[in-house]
Amino acid sequence: MRLLIKNGRVLDPTLGLDLIADVYIVDGKIEGVEENISVSADRILDAHGLWVLPGLVDIHVHLREPGEEWKEDIESGTRAALHGGVLRVACMPNTKPPVDTPEVCSAIIAKAKEKGYVPVYPIACITKGQAGKELTEFGRLKLAGAVALSDDGKWVQDSEVMRKALLYAKSFDLPIISHPEDQALSFGGQVNLGKLSAKLGLKGVPFTAETVAVVRDLLLAKETKGKLHLAHLSVKENLPFLRWAKEEGVNFTAETCPHYFHLTEWECDGYNTLAKVNPPLRTEDDVLAIKQAIKEGLIEVIASDHAPHSPLEKDVEFELASPGMIGLEFLLPLSSSLVREGLISPLKLLELLITNPAKVIGIEPPSLRKGEKAKIVLFDPEEEYLVTEDFIQSKSKNTPFLGKTIKGRVKKVILEDKVYEF
Amino acid sequence: MKHLLDIESLSKEDIEHYLNLADNLKEILYRPIPKVPTLRGKLVLLLFYEPSTRTKFSFERACKILSAEVMSFQTKGSSLEKGETLLDTVKNLKTLGVNLIVIRHNLSGTPHFLARNLSVPVVNAGDGTHEHPTQALLDLLTVRQKLGTLYDLKVAIIGDIKHSRVAHSDILAFQKMGSTVYVSGPAHLLPTPAEEEFFCLKPKAFKVCYNLATAIESADVVIALRVQKERHETPLIPGYNEYHLTFGLAPKHLDLIKEGALLMHPGPINWGVELHPELEKYPFQVILDQVENGVAVRMAVLLTLLTGA
Predict the structure, then answer these.
(1) Cα torsion angle, A25, A30, A31, A33, sign
(2) B110 near B39, Cβ under 8 Å?
(3) How far B225 CA sits from the closest chain A CA (Å)?
(4) A85 — alpha (psi -120 to 50), left (phi > 0) or beta?
(5) Cα distance from A123 to chain B (closest Cα, Å)?
(6) Which CATH number fits domain A55-360: 3.40.50.150, 3.20.20.140, 3.90.380.10, 3.40.470.10?
(7) Chain A touched by B194 (CB under 8 Å)
(8) H or E element, residue A110
(9) Which of residues 277-316 of A touch B (CB under 8 A)?
(10) CB A405: neighbour CB atoms within 10 A?
């Protein structure tokens, strides 16, 4: 089977390619990327006006399996990933049971091999039962396939436990992914602390809940020289501390999610539980600061924090609703706004979505290099469309973008010799 | 008007409508047989998920005077204890022919949640730390009756502002009517600067004071609040003696306020904490007038939402 993708804007952040060219694929492998390839092919795809890129790597995904399969499972979650052009998924360990043993880790990998549309890389817990006290067996977890460690959803509140984790993880060259939220400061918080929390009479989460945690973890990473990844940053006050850590050469990367540079706290007005998320949506100033951090290279990864919930968890009183929103299918479309706004180049954007996240979890950064298995996304950065429940392939439909028009659409995904059209 | 969910979404005209109607209806309370047939055949559901004395009986009294049927709901002994969700409970109760729901709930926004999911009018009788709109309306009515106006008054609200839904409704209500609101209390129970921005409807109409005397100086109305101990996840008041000494209203404060200024409290009162017991004898203390006006205001609300009056 010979496949030829014609006239697309080929963007490969790993190789640093940005050119109008053709991509030639033979028997599921990339044969060449060149201008005007003239060969005979079994199928020709016209990619005029489209971006042609290696698939995204999303390192912040909740697949909910095992334990909460009514919200999502490995099959539906990876199908949603495919639909969003995310061709490698690292899943968070707060399943039921959590991924704190090699057995759970292996089970996820086995299930993904059987049912998954795209490869799944499990992230294991830092501490047993995510309880923040005793470290898990990092070594055996790595052998079972874990690519990183995180108690996502919970910050490791005890500084000495976190310090030990950063040190011990060095033995196995695993990154520690922090969910920076001082839970003493955020306790009971529902939305950002400010005008909206006053209006709704809900307990607010102050920016300090995040920044105190960010600063502590940066200091511990500086001291231990461990590898730290800071998940889903949302507040402006982090910026000077991230700059400081860069200057000091701290071994860290920072991440944000599209909702933190698209939406503000006002999305929750009227007690809209679809916009309830942790950390909470913040203010216009924070949105601008997160964009600034991306532009400055302080934030180097964009991930979805795909967090599916069913109406059982969302169609309830605001304070009882679970936090989180789905995101796999909107990661590339929503992130592409950064290019349209002129903030960063397409190639830079794809570094944040492909090369850098791959480096964080220590996998080979995807590229269109000759001889690689073809895992390619065709993306129209200009197409506008309404987000409907029918569009969403995830089992859960919980997103504040439902009913909104967004720009940027994944048109086709090539997985070796299979072509998925959307 | 379809629901009464909060003061925030009401205009000055909406508020005046309720006050005028309540003033007109109040006369019924003094009749030898205080009952009119206006709401005969209507069924009102009182859903109280939190303890209440004044508000619940006041709504019940208002229903009975207007000849509406009342069903009340106890959280103890209901299906709630069997794990039924609020939405399911209400959908089920609605099939019994309920025409209006009055709800008090410990979670903010619950009345809004019901209003979004049901087609019957919903009245907020206090939701979490959000709002208590009928309390604000009866406070306005009491002040208007006693002082003749709601314009250009200085209103001081003292106490646990952060956790008080009454304070939140009153802060907005008095400003909407053209008055200025000063709040004071322990600093960690006052709005933060970002929250202050929401509460201030126009420049200089709202002020947060760390000093009690500044807040009540030359005030026309002083509203004392109860410390909302049950809403504090951890103890927030280091000591109630200190609270009374620093933030409690005492006879010595009467020199600071305007002559004839009203002293109010939404109840229940903890005498000796937020109010010195001697203040019960203060001639312009109108706490029981507030309770009486509560019935009139709730009659006005029921009538408006059930008949479009």
Answers:
(1) positive
(2) no
(3) 17
(4) left
(5) 34
(6) 3.20.20.140
(7) yes
(8) helix A102-115
(9) 315-316
(10) 9
First-to-last alpha carbon distance for chain A, in angstroms, is 21
Give the whole-angstrom CA distance, residue B235 versus residue B258: 35
Question: pLDDT band for position B80 (50/70/90)?
Answer: low
What CATH number does the domain located at B12-131+291-307 have?
A: 3.40.50.1370
**Contact at CB, B87 and A315, closer than 8 angstroms:** yes
Please tell me if residue B89 touches chain A, with a CB cutoff of 8 Å: no
Q: What would you report as the CA-atom Rg of chain B, rounded to the nearest whole angstrom?
A: 19
> In terms of CATH architecture, what is A2-52+371-421?
Roll (2.30)
* The pLDDT of residue B91: 84
Phi, psi of A311 (to 5 degrees): -60, -25
Cβ B113–A316 below 8 Å, yes or no? yes
Q: Which residue has the tokens 């709704």?
A: A200
Residues from chain A that touch B165, judged by Cβ atoms under 8 A, are 201
Summarize pLDDT for A130-150 with one digit per residue, the tens: 999 999 999 999 999 999 999
Shortest CA gap B11–chain A (Å): 16
Is B109 in contact with A200 (Cβ distance < 8 A)?
yes
A272 touches chain B (CB under 8 A): no
A145 touches chain B (CB under 8 A): no
Sheet strands side by side (includes B180-184): B206-209, B180-184, B154-158, B221-224, B262-264
Sequence-ordered strand ranges (E) for A139-227: 148-150, 176-178, 191-192, 204-205
Q: What is the ipTM of this complex?
A: 0.92
Cα B305 to chain centroid distance, Å, stands at 18
Find chain A residues with C-beta within 8 A of B191's C-beta. Answer: 198
Cα dihedral sign for A316, A317, A322, A328?
Answer: positive
Residue A331 structure tokens: 């990661």
A151 classed as catalytic: no
In single-letter form, the type of residue at position A329 comes to E
| Domain regions of chain B by residue span | 12-131+291-307, 133-287
The helix (H) or strand (E) run that includes residue B244 is helix B240-247
Q: Is there a contact between B262 and B282 (Cβ–Cβ < 8 Å)?
A: no
Strand intervals (E) in A135-232: 148-150, 176-178, 191-192, 204-205, 228-230
B12-131+291-307 and B133-287 share one fold: yes
CB pairs under 8 A between A and B: 71
**pLDDT score for A274:** 98
Residue B16: which residues within 8 A CB-CB, separation 6 or more?
A: none
Domain B133-287 homologous superfamily, CATH: Aspartate/ornithine carbamoyltransferase (3.40.50.1370)
Q: What is the dihedral of CA A143, A144, A145, A150, to 10 degrees?
A: -100
Count CB-CB contacts under 10 A for residue A129: 13
Render pLDDT for A206-245 as a digit per residue (tens, 0 to 9).
Answer: 999 999 999 999 999 999 999 999 999 999 999 999 999 9
A184 at the B interface (CB within 8 A)? Answer: no
